[in-house]
Write a structure and sequence with these properties.
The protein is 55% helix and 0% strand. The protein contains twelve helices and no strands. Helix 2 packs parallel to helix 5, helix 4 crosses helix 10 and helix 10 packs antiparallel against helix 12. The radius of gyration is 20 Å and the shape is globular. The N and C termini lie far apart (53 Å).
Amino acid sequence: MMKLNTEIANDILAKIIKREHRTFSKYACLSQKAYRFNEEELPDRKNIRTPFFHDTDKIIHSLAYTRYIDKTQVFYLFENDNITHRVLHVQLVSKIARVIGRALSLNEDLIEAISLGHDLGHVPYGHNGEKMLNKLMLDNTNEYFCHNAQSVRALHYLEDKGNGLNLTVQVLDGILCHNGELMQKEYKPDYKKTKEQFIQEYKCCWTTKDFSAKIIAMTLEGCVMRIADVVAYIGRDLEDAIILKLIKRKEIPESISKIIGNTNATIINNFVIPHGFGYDITQKS
């Protein structure tokens, strides 16, 4: 029976790998390219999960992931259950990034893992909380706080009683490089990046001011997730501000709404869906 189960699992994995080679773009990161820091962690031959798919499971079952629930997105200290929290934001990022990834024939499993783990290092009070923690760290340790690096720290060093989850380097790198607050004209991966370079970049995020703004992902999937982070928060932050009556929809300048839209649905579609398609990936508001 054990031999039969192993044969079945190997057959399933072989079919998954063949499908990737047949359907993925040449720019995609194949599951076979995945590698971990602890290469001695041999795969379970009865495990039909590919490495990036397995990483998503590791992330959503982590203690750090459960703490998303109390972390705000932008607005906090409002008694309103309808505004976005961080746990919803990462799901929206994952969905938008996977739409883009599917259109480009990329590895959606890698995209999902990066998306769901990218904001684990955020503090409860959003960017204002990050600024305060940064000040406290500078005053006491002469280091900088970087939520990107803190997300990696939580997954790679703190989870499992300090042993870390041994995620793939590609997932950790995408998390470190997400920088959704910083937009670029061109998103191009550093395909030559090594895990040694990744570790050096991680360390520099703590010691060099704004260092995370200089680094780029080693995969195109990481670049896509970074773009999706921007798309996900622009529309939702706008809707939250309207719900809280901080602004009115009619107050949005026409020069902006004419180009990107003035609702979460139109903003996402205008950024993600090619012009000429009538498909709406969001529920009409």
